[in-house]
Design a protein that fits this description.
transferase, binds 4'-deoxy-4'-aminopyridoxal-5'-phosphate, seven-stranded mixed sheet, PyrdxlP-dep_Trfase, 34% helix, globular, PyrdxlP-dep_Trfase_major, aminotransferase, Aspartate Aminotransferase, domain 2, 17% strand, O-phospho-L-serine:2-oxoglutarate aminotransferase activity, Aspartate Aminotransferase, domain 1
Length: 360
């Protein structure tokens, strides 16, 4: 069976090696006579998987003991609420950057919990972009500053994170976690659904500074408190064992490739090839401002927008799937996370040239 080039924004393509390994181990996990899907989450087989996934993420992100790695459920969307519930404090307020659809959603949830101050609002900017540091108005009394490191729909990405002094940054890194190196120290909380860069849907990766996990009011439901996950090592209840197992394999695959430093240059090169193809022709037009372009989600339009449907259909016929832009914005989007192969990017660039020749 031939695998297609899957440009889907998430759930997204996984390393083929990882899928094959999971397949080999599926019915009988390491001679235990049962699948990891059937194993107790407190048994020795799963405990080793859980610990490997946790320590691989800590190693990839170069975390000190000040941070805990948690495995939660409910996707990044649940974190939109849990972050303010745990961190805003009674009568507190937080700074938020509105940079597009995903931050807007995070803001909507935070407003249900407490006071939100907009540190910057570029959600309607055209071309789409992230704010410049000098555009931010930061409230020194804010409990934290929330930002979306990569806007999956708009195709924009923070290139340098803002200096917030003592105020911790809370980041939705759903679509670029572990895709590039960065200094974790200014961050108090990082969350991401696994289904783009780290594994399948069903587990949310949360990295929290341990002292911040203590901020939550004790009256919050037990499983809504980060504290519980820190204290019980994400085993207060049954964790999503299979997604975490796949995360352990994907993170091992990443470490084998030299960790984030190893994959970062490849990610940049993949994106640069596509942006060069877009910029090199009037037939295509990038939708994000050059200084905010995402290395993960490359968004573009065709000069003749009526041709986009044909472009996407024809690409799919040639084994390049998932290129349709988000329904809220249309256009074309190539999502090229860590596991997306370089050859797939080359194939798309060739296809773009051919398509232009035929239709330009
Ligand atoms: N934030 C960002 C940046 C996303 O890309 C997505 C999903 N595409 C979400 C949040 C929502 O994640 P989930 O479906 O895991 O709740």
């Amino acid at each position: 069976m031939a695998r297609v080039y899957n440009f889907s924004p998430g759930p997204a393509t996984l390393p083929e090696e990882v899928l094959k390994e999971a397949q080999t181990q599926l019915a009988d996990y390491k001679g235990s006579g049962m699948s990891i899907l059937e194993s107790s989450h407190r048994g020795k087989e799963y405990s080793a998987v859980h610990e490997e996934a946790r320590s691989n993420i800590a190693e990839l992100l170069n975390l000190t003991e000040d941070y805990a790695v948690l495995f939660m459920s409910g996707g990044a969307s649940t974190q939109f609420a849990l972050a303010p519930m745990n961190l805003m404090g009674e009568g507190g307020r937080a700074d938020y950057v509105d940079s597009g659809s995903w931050s807007t959603k995070a803001i909507k949830e935070a407003r249900k919990i407490g006071e939100v101050h907009l540190a910057a609002d570029v959600k309607d900017a055209s071309p789409a972009r992230m704010p410049k540091p000098e555009e931010l108005t930061l409230d020194p009394g804010a409990a934290y500053l929330h930002l979306t490191s990569n806007e999956t729909i708009a195709g924009t990405q923070w290139k340098t994170f803002p200096d917030t002094g003592e105020v911790p940054i809370v980041a939705d890194m759903s679509s670029d976690i572990c895709s590039r190196t960065f200094d974790v120290n200014p961050f108090g909380l990082i969350y991401a659904g696994a289904q783009k860069n780290l594994g399948p849907a069903g587990v949310t990766i949360v990295v929290i500074r341990r002292d911040l996990a203590e901020r939550a009011a004790g009256h919050l439901p037990t499983l809504f408190q980060y504290r519980t996950f820190v204290e019980k090592d994400s085993l207060a209840n049954t964790p999503p064992v299979f997604p975490i197992y796949i995360v352990s394999l994907v993170t091992r695959w990443l470490l084998d490739k030299g960790g984030i430093a190893g994959i970062e240059q490849q990610n940049r090169d993949k994106a640069a090839k596509l942006y060069a193809a877009i910029d090199g022709s009037d037939f295509y037009r990038g939708t994000a401002a050059a200084d905010s372009r995402s290395d993960m989600n490359v968004t573009f339009r065709l000069a003749e927008e009526e041709l986009e449907k044909t472009f996407i259909e024809e690409a799919a016929r040639q084994g390049m799937k998932g290129l349709k832009g988000h329904r809220s914005v249309g256009g074309v989007r190539a999502s090229i996370y860590n596991a997306f192969p370089v050859e797939g990017v080359d194939a798309l660039v060739d296809f773009m040239k051919e398509f232009e020749k035929k239709n330009g």
